[in-house]
Design goal:
The structure holds three protein chains of three kinds.
Chain A (H helix, E strand, L loop, with lengths): L19 H4 L4 H9 L1 H10 L3 H20 L5 H17 L10 H16 L34 H19 L3 H12 L4 H8 L3 H18 L5
Chain B lengths: L1 H10 L20 H16 L2 H15 L3 H15 L3 H18 L1
Chain C lengths: L2 H6 L1 H5 L5 H13 L1 H18 L11 H20 L10 H28 L4 H29 L13 H5 L1 H5 L1 H5 L1 H5 L1 H5 L20
Helix pairs in contact in C: 6-7
Classes of the chains: A mainly alpha, B mainly alpha, C mainly alpha.
């Protein structure tokens, strides 16, 4: 059932005859982009109804989405639920994805939007507690990654302390400054893509980053 | 006459449209009037610049995750807004601009 | 270029996001300003540390399974709404009633046609053909009349929605139903606060961020 030119096993997501999602053949341009960009091929497979494409997409981007979400919401459980929401939205909006857009920008646009929205709704019923925790418990945070450039144990410890202080300083930033900083510096998005994800101009992104770095410099005066 | 009544009675139950279990309704679950409204708005949406389309999609994602009572509040506010006469609408727009500049 | 302006360009220059003209102006300022050179070094160090924050988090064992389950629910919901509705679902009750009447009228008309056809067997040659043709014409007129009655009950609209909407519309019809609300969302969210805002004083033009209005 996959459109011509798109390779991939179609499984599980049954399609109906006359399914409008499959009615139109994949344009030649999209097929060419799919050959050049694995993310485009992935999305075309998803649009064609290939469930394994959804799994591939999830495995590729969920670790990053989860980390971003964790830096916006108060608990690990909320971050995990938000991550689910992001991928369900990606599925529901899959037909809106255009091969001309970068998939990573599109994923982070949806993720950032839901993260910023979540901050307006601190009270939220969790659907499933994946860790079967009791009320009040939380999963211990992942330890910060060791600094590969550290020569001595003391230097490694200092770097870890800095990383913890930095996480706290980032968490204290206003949401849009936090989003701009994380998306550009941690997730490597260009300013234009950060603007698209947050919903503002490139000039506004620069202004957000300026305020964010000024705030971090003040918080980490003793470390940097 | 009896045949006519029988035909009508047979057809009436088939006009019911069930609502989706999670509150989200698919195309086929919309009434004809709702489908027309959605179709008209879809055509208007296609005319918007891409950036504006994306802004609306972002807002849709936000709206979807709101609690039902919050969604209802916005719908009620929209009905009130729609009912404003031109003078009141103009005054509201002025107040909105002032509110926005105070906020930022 | 003043130092304050130069400071605003430091993060973009570290990220290689400056336009050539701005980069040139900043470089010129830095050659003359030791304080800004120091500030740039601090900015670079800070951003390097930020870049080393973990970008990924390990996934809990069930997260993929739960997400897949929700995706399948969404797919099932889509399939149930894509199944084409029977053609008569698009008619309103009055139109259905009229259609039912038309069907009955047709049934009665056909019965009469059968009677006429039976009678015509006894009339030889052309006469038989002519009366059969007349009966067929009468049947055609009756059908045409029935169709006209139905058409008059349902006036044509400028743009009828398609039976199979485009995927973008089918995947989120509520987005398009609620389009006016989404367009005015900020106003509607803060409706009461806006209504109580006073507009006696002119707004301060120097206040506010550079963010584009989201309207």
């Amino acid at each position: 059932m996959a459109p011509a030119g798109v390779h991939g096993k179609v499984s599980h997501m049954r399609t109906e005859p006359g399914d409008p999602a499959l009615a139109a053949p994949v344009p030649a341009e999209a097929t060419a982009r799919a050959a050049a960009d694995p993310d485009v091929a992935l999305m075309l497979r998803l649009q064609a109804g290939d469930e394994s494409a959804f799994q591939d997409l999830f495995r590729k981007y969920a670790p990053r989405v989860l980390q971003l979400a964790r830096r916006f919401v108060g608990s690990q459980a909320q971050a995990e639920e938000l991550t689910q929401d992001v991928f369900v939205q990606i599925f529901r909006f899959r037909h809106r994805y255009k091969p001309q857009s970068r998939l990573v920008t599109w994923v982070f646009t949806i993720a950032t939007n839901l993260c910023l929205n979540e901050l307006r709704r601190p009270e939220r019923q969790l659907r499933v507690d994946l860790w079967d925790r009791r009320d009040g418990e939380d999963r211990p945070e992942d330890p910060p990654l060791p600094d590969p450039a550290a020569v001595t144990a003391e230097e490694g410890a200092a770097t870890r302390e800095l990383a913890q202080q930095l996480e706290a300083a980032v968490a204290a930033l206003p949401p849009k400054q936090r989003a701009a900083l994380l998306l550009s510096r941690v997730d490597g998005l260009a300013y234009r893509d950060v603007g698209e994800a947050i919903g503002c101009s490139e000039g506004a992104v620069k202004a957000l980053l300026f305020r964010a770095t000024q705030a971090l410099k003040r918080s980490l005066r003793d470390y940097v | 006459m009896r045949e006519l009544v029988a035909v009508v009675l047979l057809l009436v139950p088939l006009l019911a449209s069930p609502v989706g279990a999670q509150g989200w309704r698919g195309w086929d679950q919309l009434s004809p009037e709702e489908q027309r409204r959605a179709w008209d708005n879809y055509q208007r949406y296609q005319q918007l610049p891409q950036q504006r389309q994306r802004m609306i999609e972002r807002r849709y994602q936000q709206f979807q995750t709101m609690p039902p009572q919050e969604q209802q509040r916005l719908r009620q506010n929209y009905e009130t807004y729609r009912g404003l006469d031109p003078g009141a609408r103009h005054e509201f727009t002025e107040k909105y601009r002032r509110w926005k500049s105070d906020r930022h | 270029m003043r130092c304050r302006q130069a400071q605003r360009l430091m993060t973009p220059t570290v990220d290689n996001e400056l336009e050539p003209r701005q980069q040139h102006a900043l470089d010129q300022h830095l050659t003359a300003c030791a304080a800004c050179r120091q500030e740039l070094a601090a900015t670079r160090t800070l951003l390097e540390v930020v870049a080393r924050l973990p970008a990924e988090m390990s996934l809990p064992p069930r997260l993929e399974e739960v997400t897949l389950h929700r995706m399948r629910d969404a797919a099932r919901a889509e399939r149930s709404e894509r199944r084409p509705a029977p053609w008569w679902r698009s008619l309103s009750l009055p139109a259905l009633t009229v259609a039912a009447v038309a069907v009955l009228a047709l049934a009665v008309g056909l019965r009469q046609f059968d009677v006429v056809s039976t009678r015509s067997v006894d009339i030889p040659g052309r006469l038989a053909a002519k009366s059969g043709h007349q009966a067929a014409s009468q049947h055609q007129v009756a059908s045409e009349a029935a169709r006209t009655r139905v058409a008059r009950q349902e006036p044509r609209r400028a743009s009828e929605p398609p039976k199979y909407p485009p995927a973008e519309l089918a995947s989120a019809p509520d987005l398009f139903m609620d389009l006016p609300i989404l367009r005015h969302m900020e106003k509607l969210e803060h409706f009461d606060a806006i209504r109580t805002t006073t507009v006696d004083e002119a707004p301060d033009p120097s206040a506010g961020q550079q963010e584009r209005s989201s309207g």
